[in-house]
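Continuing from the previous page of notes. For each protein in this section, the sequence appears first, followed by its structure tokens. Read the first protein now.
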Amino acid sequence: MDKKILSELGRILGDLRFLIQKKQIPVLRFSGEQPPETTELIWKEEIWLPSSQSHDLELEATGIQVRRVAKTAERNFVCKLCSERISAVRNFIIKGRKPILVLHYTGEIVPGKPAFSKTSPDQIFRTKEAEELFGRMIQKQFGFNHREFYYQEYPACIFAHSKSNAEDWKIRTEKCEVQVKETIDSEKIKGIILLGTSAIAVYGKEKALEMMGRTLDFLPGVPMIVLRSPEAIAAIETKRKNFKGAKDSFEFETIKKEEILVKESILSQLSLFQNKLKDIL
């Protein structure tokens, strides 16, 4: 069988497993059939429902379909804005308690590189090393656990990255702004951190590099800072840890200085961002 077909089949089956685990499989029905969720059963006790929901169920019982708002966890699965998408990113939102939203992307955007999918419901970044590093930096600068923040995949779906160009990604993130704005409204988000891959998807590689460390408004009153991805910073850290040469060599010192400069720069940028939100955090 064609490798491409096998790959797509594997992704579809992976999404099916995810939906089964989340108990969010949509039940299809033939026209004229009563929706399963409105079928009368013998209840042991009366269950109170808000008047609006009760009214919706009454309408559905008569055959009138009522449009329901999708659950936050499945918003990207039902989104139809990008017809060329392959699948939705699983667990595209991980909620926190602080009103800061971290926009990132675990999907692949570089042509030729292998596709990537998250394997755990609570996974944020691609690697454990990247998450641990990001956690250390947030703890050091803000004084609390990085999971206090909200995290959202941006864009929220997987695409054929090897057939995509910079303009394709720009259009996709523009369309996906509706998902970000919905999170901002529903979770009362006050600030945004835009990380590496998402920034490249939004601005293109060259402009994204120019934007690193800058603070601007995502929306009026919602400041956003652009930072390097934890994966990129972790790669520099790993390079130093895996160095096989002499620790007093010029090469090792150069690698070590690069790591220190990058981390200090990120902490400095986070400090400026924190000051903008000092009344909130």
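Done with the first. The second protein uses the same format. Note its length before scrolling.
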Amino acid sequence: MRATSVQNTPVQPAQPQPDQVPNWQPLNDFAERKQQDSGLKAWIAVVEGCIKAIEKTAWQGREIADQAITACKAVTRGASAVNEEMQLLADEARRWPARLKRLTKTGWMLTKVVTSYRLWGTRAAFLPGSMRDAALANLHKRNAKRFRDTSLEQGGAFLKIGQLLSSRPDLLPQAWVDELAVLQDQASPVAFADIAAVLEQEFNQPLDTLFAHVDPQPLAAASIGQVHRARLHDGREVAVKVQRPGLDEVVELDMTLLKVFMDAVKSALPPMDIDTIVNEIQRTVREELDYQREARVMTDIGRQLAAIPGIRVPTLVPECSSRHVLTTEFIQGEKLTLTLDRLKTSDPARVSALLSTLLDAWFCQVLHGGLFHADPHPGNIMITPDNTLVLLDFGCAQALTDDARRGYFRVLQACIVGDETVIADTLTALGFVTRSGDPATLLAFVSAVLDQVRDAIINPDQQAGWPSPEAMMQQVSELLGQLEHDPVQTLPGDFIMLARVFGTLGGLFLHYQPNVDVATLVLGYLTRPLDGPTTAHTTSQAA
């Protein structure tokens, strides 16, 4: 189907309304059509091609553009070509009821979001600047709500995708980040009967043979799994994380829908390496489904942190763990932010000590061990009554190669001494590539960053206090402005996770404003020898 066919071919009246899910019936002649482009990606490409032609027409005259918009709306609401494509996809998915249900709900929502943004280029042609900005803000909010509601309804891997996207203000408009933020603590628990069925199926034993007791009320419920307190027959108290049933059947469909969606809207997003970001999200979700990998990561990171006083990792119970079940010792404690909120005014020195230990733990993982917990949000960090920090949930983790670890090590060393050329060269070697490929762009960016890094690490002005959120955003905006005309288009995948980690930790530091000697922590690792392989090799090979 050509983009110009919208203007030359009459379109039949639309059948379904835009907020309804069409009742696609499978075609009998699917075998004869197997050579045609099929699936959601091909269909979006068809619609996108139509609307690109309409955008061009819009600037040539209001009357012609209005006619084109009418034609395009008919296409997006159910013209025959669209229905044929979706019928083919529905026919393929009929064998998997869970996939089909997810496809019709999630796929239709993504279709409406993509189409609304593609139509925006046409509508914006006739709006003055102030109205255009307000209308676009409303469009962002409306589409973000659509995505949020579908994430909550579908749950599982798609909810996890929404949670990951909510932590990417560099990728999405602020309206999206605000709407998706509610997903961080939103996951309905699975009925205990379904959890018991998973446990019995995983170990091929009755539940009362596996455990002396399992509390039917979950301690926590998340997008991928939920945790129950239990007691073994030898008397040990344990925490049992059980994966939600049915995720294996739908996760790959969710990954495909995410890729198609981001490909379709990337032109409306800031210039950056969208493919790497999407690949990292897909990798993260897939790895979080493998509890055996999580068990290995948890054990390795526990060994890394054993030398740091005041922090611990739960001990694995291997005989009660599998690919879909992870059992560890139970540790009593409360959520990190609950303790910090209580101590912020009454004992600020203790707040500073706790956050200093937390930062030390992540410097150790990244610079010394080469394997790090990549999701340090407050729900994954507890504090015990004896002031020990406990790290939880190692499903999202990143292993650095020795070359990458050494590269980031050199970047920090060069920041300390102010060697801009070494920083730019090392970033290029790590995989940072701008649109032009000119290393001078990275050099200019590094120069802009360097003063702030030095202030934070070497010359922190404790009297001046921490910057306000508004000042921090202004600094970020100025730094990004250095790359406005030659943006970074390729990023190393591990940097995405590093940015997420230190962005999250930075948010905690900005909120609680501790008195932490960052320079001493950093220099303590930069003066250690960098010899021998890291644990990253062991874990990545085992995974």
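What the second structure shows: The first strand starts at residue 213 and ends at 214. Residues 333-543 form one domain. We return to this in next week's lecture.
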